[in-house]
Amino acid sequence: MSGPDCLDYLSSQFHIGSVREVVHLPDGLMNDNWRIEADAGIFALKKIRDVPFDLARRNLRTLSALAKTGVPAPSPRQTADADPVVEVGRDGFSLVSWVEGRHRPGTDLPLSEVTALGALLGHLHEVLNRTLTGLPPVIDVPAASVTAPEATLAQIERFLAQLATLGEPTSFDEEAARFLVERRLLLEKFADERPVSAAPAGPFGWTHGDFQYRNVLWQDSEIVAVLDWDRIRVRPFGEEAVRTATVQFGGADGVLDSERVAAFMDGYRSVIAISPAELEDAVSRLWWKRMTDPWVLVFHYDRSDHSCDDLFAPQERMLSWWTERREEVVAAFIAKA
């Protein structure tokens, strides 16, 4: 696949010279990405789709500061006006240095590397909240919305009604209908167990927002790059640590690797002080968010965006598995490996 139609304009704005090779990267879930080989080197070109361009600019400038501290992050390319985003009509593009490496799902990692991964996330949280990043100091505790079960039940009924009208449902449609019925039963059973406070417990501050194996590059046993900094935002640290562990160490069968969760959290807590009670709060909040947020179906049916369809079934299997073993999951997060 060729690059975007405006590639010549982008190469001139980013001052990379003549483009010799363009390869589309099919693995991106939210954005279009290309590997670009040009006179000035090899780069990753991104068409920004899921964040406002001004926010992308702020995050890319933060990335430049992080790279100077030794954080394994690619360096953004800038225009002559020091702009890391080039706008072409309604589209926006960023360009960062290319880093060779491979993505490694968490269940493939030996425990020593799992612990190192957790320590790196802790280090990122610590560095992101230094003044050198240019991000403003965080003072107020971030509020955490707690979705009412009635709202999600209404969504479920809406999707089920839509699915019932399909003359020739696909395999995804059939799977969605089955999992929606299961989700409805879970919600009705556990509606009273949602978090009661809108104030999450534990430390908070600027976070990466999507730290997981699709955004981490390895060379052998070394992490050489953390990618996709589009979602830098203030969050509870526990929220990102728990989310990372469930994405990184949950298999397609929906089962969470408890041993690796414990090793990951050991590494994280070697850098960030977070208590067992604060971690339990984070685990409970993420469980409820998964229970009440059928976001893949919103993408698929409301936005006609099928890029995340493959995530749906594993997420639903994990929700069922997790709900049956909530105490066991909490124990994995607060245990010492």
Structural class designation = alpha+beta
Question: Looking at CATH, which topology of the largest domain would you report?
Answer: Aminoglycoside 3'-phosphotransferase, Chain: A, domain 2
- CATH architect. name of the largest domain: Alpha-Beta Complex
Rg, alpha carbons: 21 Å
Pfam families: APH
Protein name: Phosphotransferase
InterPro entries: AGP_Transferase, Aminoglycoside_PTrfase, Kinase-like_dom_sf
Organism: Kitasatospora acidiphila
Describe the structure.
With 337 residues, the chain is of the alpha+beta class. The chain has 2 domains: 7-97, Phosphorylase Kinase, domain 1, CATH 3.30.200; 106-144 and 193-334, Aminoglycoside phosphotransferase (APH), C-terminal lobe (Aminoglycoside 3'-phosphotransferase, Chain: A, domain 2), CATH 3.90.1200. Helices cover 45% and strands 14% of the residues. The protein is built from 11 helices and 9 strands. The protein has helices at 7-13, 53-68, 111-128, 149-164, 171-190, 237-248, 258-269, 276-292, 295-302, 309-324, 326-334, and strands spanning 19-25, 32-38, 41-47, 86-88, 91-97, 204-207, 216-219, 222-226, 233-236. The strands form 3 sheets. A 5-stranded antiparallel beta sheet has the order 1-2-3-5-4, covered by helices on one side. Strands 6-9 form a two-stranded antiparallel ribbon. Strands 7-8 form a two-stranded antiparallel sheet. The protein is globular, with a radius of gyration of 21 Å. The termini are far apart. The mean pLDDT is 93. This is Phosphotransferase.
